[in-house]
Amino acid sequence: MIERWIRRLPESVVRNRRICVQSYFCGTKEEMEIEVWRSFREQWKKVLWAAFAFLAVLVLAAISGWLTGKEIVIHRDTEGEEINQELSIDSGREKELYELNVQPKAYSRKEEKEAFRAGTEYVKRHMKGKNKSLNEVRESLNFPDRIPETQIKVNWETEDLSLVDEQGNVFNEDLKSPVILKTTAALSYEDHTELVTVPVRVVPRDTGSKESKLAGTKKELQRIERENAEKQSFTIPSRVKGSRVEDGEKIQSRLPVLVIMGILFLGLLWYTEEERQKQKRAKAIKETKDEYPLIISRLVLLLGAGMTIQGAVHSIAASYDQKHPKFVYRQFYEADKKIALGASQTQVLKELGNSIQMPCYKKLAVLMAQSLVRGSRDLLERLEEEETAAFAERKETARRKGEEASTKLLMPMILMLVVILTLLMVPAFLSFS
């Protein structure tokens, strides 16, 4: 099946992969073609395995509600909170979603006593909110409707709702002098109720304090809620006090998100393999270019010593290491085998230049091929010129890489300078202040 799919790939995709493989693969044309389709096969296998895993996740996400069978296990909240468990009821004629109110685990008598004691301490300690103390109340009080980590509910009452309401909001904008009033917290658990009375002293609000935009929006929302206290339902405008207000309980399905993430992952996997092939090609090109000055130097040395072109090619081909093959030496190795089998040296040298696909190697192959036809009188001289130019280019490349490295180090050096200056200047400024 995979073979059928990869054979249907667009010709442009196959051609680009063939170019990439040709630039780093060491072997004959038949072996190279096998490597091209092998790389496609491996790439498709990775994508298919990822697709199967993704589909398995989707199936598990879709049928996770069916795996529990007929029995439904409901866990009570460990922190004493009520939870709503959504259940689907199908009577045969009607089908409805029902939310079952699940109460927390009941207290023993000892646990109940301890919970009320902890609740009383919590109320007295936390009800001041952002105020300095209950003797100087300017901001809203903290009136929790439940004691955290317990099942104790709290209902609040105040002597004067115009100053402090049951939510703890303080209305002291028009207050002229401090007022002392009582607040009562009714702690309840099932049928047991305890009252905690705490006096507070409300003082006028500071005229210089400015209310934040968010706090103003919250107060306006609370005012709208109080005005509609007798209504079963009421509406809130989308913009209140210049702030946008939206429903915070929007339930969205996770399935579309999973689908989008899966598609992106599969695309990324395919793209990663394409980038890997390009990196292998770039690495092979760099290695081949770096070896050129060494190869041309060896040719000058061997031909200057009186060796024939066939002997020089054979000597360079002997540098081929099958354990750590380099593309350029494999091409010389293949050329040497063809010459040994009786192929035309001129034709083999031309094929050598075309197989490496770099201008410098094509030029070298043409020079050696021409020397076989026209004679080798000026071959050594031209190779020496080529050697000088190759080493000059290699020197320029090394200088350019050095400049690029120093440029990359410039930003870290600037950051280090900023850190050092900060470490020196901050203590100095602190000592002055």
UniProtKB/TrEMBL annotation:
Record domain Type II secretion system protein GspF: where: 296-427
GO cellular component assignments: plasma membrane
Subcellular location: Cell membrane
Keyword tags: Cell membrane, Membrane, Transmembrane, Transmembrane helix
Principal subcellular localisation of the protein: membrane
Transmembrane regions: 47-67, 253-271, 409-430
Membrane topology: Multi-pass membrane protein
Keyword Transmembrane helix on entry: yes
Protein name, entry field: Type II secretion system protein GspF domain-containing protein
